[in-house]
Specification:
binds uridine-5'-diphosphate-4-deoxy-4-fluoro-alpha-D-galactose, UDP-galactose 4-epimerase, domain 1, three-stranded mixed beta sheet, seven-stranded parallel beta sheet, 10 helices, Rossmann fold
Length: about 325
C-alpha cells in the first residue's frame, strides 16, 4: 500500500513510518518540521517539507504519489499552550483536517487513520474510559481533536471516506535500537523530563501537584510504548482495508501509574537518585486517565508487547543516553 503520513517527522509519526516500512508499505511523509525532525524520518520514506494547511500541495502529493491511504498526525499537541493560544490550535488542527479531507475527496483517497487523544474525554466520570465514555474536553487541544473526529464522521457519511480515530493515552519509549525517540522543544512530557534531568544531573525536575484525588496525590496516567502504538496504526489500516467501517479506538494499557510511581521506576531503571521539587498544579490536568482498550484488542487484534512500565522507561532512557541533546547530536 502507498501511505501518506502527515507529521511523519514527529515522535509518534516517525515510529509509525518505521512500522509501515517494516510491514512492506511505500511511505510518503509530509511534515513542516515546525516540531518534527528530518533525522527522525526513515530514509526509505519519501519526504516532502510542507504543511497540511496547503491544500494544493496535499492534493498534488496524493495524486502524484498515487496514495492509497493517509495517516494524519500533523497537529499541535501541547495542552498548556492550547489554553494560552487557542486560535493557533483551532487554525492548525481543525483547518488542517478540513484541508486534508478536501484534498482526499478530490483525489478520491478514501482511507484515513487519525491520531486522536484521550484529551477528548476531559475529566472522567468513571474509570477506565471506554470509547462510549462522555467526551467533554477541558482544553482547546482536546476540543480540536474531538472536532476533527466529528468532521471525519460527516465526511464518511457524505463522501465515504472511511476513518479510524486512535485515542492515545500517554506515550513513552523509543525505537528498540534507540535510533529514533522523543525530542520536543521545549520538552513538557513527564518521562523525558525526568530522564533529561537524570542525564544532566541538574535537579530541575518538578512534579506538578500532589493534592489530586489519587492515592498518592499526584496525577495518574496510562502509559503505552511508542512501538506498540505505532503497530496499532498499521493494524488500523489493515482493518479499514478489509472492513471499510469507520471506528474509534482507545489505546492504553489499562494500568494507571502516578507521577511519583513513574519517578520511582525511573530511579530504579537509571540507578540515579533523581531529585525533584513538588510544584503547583499545571492547568488542564485531570486527576486520572486510564484506558479500557478492550475494543482495540478485540477488533484490531492489538496486543501491546512492551507493557511493563520499567521496560518502557528503559527504552526512553536508552534514547536519552544516546541522544542527550535530542536529534541535534
Ligand atoms: N508532569 C510533571 N512534570 C513534568 C511534566 C509533566 O509533573 O515536568 C505531569 C503532568 O502534570 C501530568 C503527567 O506528568 O500529571 C503527565 O503529563 P504529560 O505532559 O507527560 O502528558 P499529558 O497527560 O498531559 O498528555 C499526554 C499527551 C496528550 C494526551 C494525554 C492523554 O501529551 O496529547 O497524554 O492522557 F491527550
Amino acid at each position: 500500500m502507498r501511505v501518506l503520513v502527515t507529521g511523519g517527522a514527529g515522535y509518534i509519526g516517525s515510529h509509525t513510518v518505521l512500522k509501515l516500512i517494516e510491514d512492506g508499505n511505500e511511505v510518503v511523509v509530509l511534515d513542516n518540521l515546525v516540531t518534527g525532525h528530518k533525522e527522525a524520518v526513515n530514509p526509505q520514506a519519501k519526504f516532502y517539507e510542507g504543511s497540511v494547511l496547503d491544500t494544493n500541495l496535499v492534493y498534488d502529493i496524493l495524486t502524484k504519489e498515487k496514495i492509497d491511504a493517509v495517516i494524519h498526525f500533523a497537529a499541535y499537541l501541547l495542552v498548556g499552550e492550547s489554553v494560552e493560544q487557542p486560535l493557533k490550535y483551532y487554525h492548525n488542527n481543525v483547518t488542517g483536517m478540513i484541508n486534508l479531507l478536501e484534498a482526499m475527496q478530490k483525489a478520491n483517497v478514501k482511507t484515513l487513520v487519525f491520531s486522536s487523544s484521550a484529551a477528548t474525554y476531559g475529566v472522567p466520570e468513571k474509570l477506565p474510559l471506554t470509547e462510549k465514555s462522555p467526551t467533554n474536553p477541558i482544553n482547546p487541544y482536546g476540543e480540536t481533536k474531538l472536532m476533527m473526529e466529528k468532521i471525519m464522521r460527516w465526511t464518511d457519511s457524505a463522501y465515504g471516506i472511511k476513518s479510524i480515530a486512535l485515542r492515545y493515552f500517554n506515550v513513552a519509549g523509543a525505537s528498540l535500537d534507540a535510533s529514533i525517540g522523543e525530542d520536543h522543544a521545549p520538552e513538557t512530557h513527564l518521562v523525558p523530563n525526568i530522564l533529561l534531568s537524570a542525564e544532566k544531573g541538574d535537579g530541575k525536575f518538578t512534579i506538578f501537584g500532589d493534592d489530586y484525588n489519587t492515592p498518592d496525590g499526584t496525577n495518574v496516567r496510562d502509559y503505552v510504548h511508542v512501538v506498540d502504538l505505532a503497530s496499532a496504526h498499521v493494524l488500523a489500516l489493515h482493518y479499514l482495508g478489509k472492513n471499510r467501517q469507520s471506528e474509534i479506538f482507545n489505546l492504553g494499557s489499562a494500568h494507571g501509574f502516578s507521577n511519583l510511581e513513574i519517578l520511582k521506576s525511573a530511579i530504579k531503571v537509571t540507578g540515579i537518585d533523581i531529585p525533584y521539587t513538588m510544584g503547583p498544579r499545571r492547568p488542564g490536568d485531570p486527576d486520572s486517565l486510564v484506558a479500557d482498550s478492550t475494543k482495540a484488542r478485540t477488533i484490531l487484534g492489538w496486543k501491546p508487547k512492551y507493557d511493563n512500565i520499567d521496560d518502557i522507561i528503559a527504552s526512553a532512557w536508552k534514547f536519552v543516553q544516546t541522544h542527550p541533546h535530542g536529534y541535534q547530536n
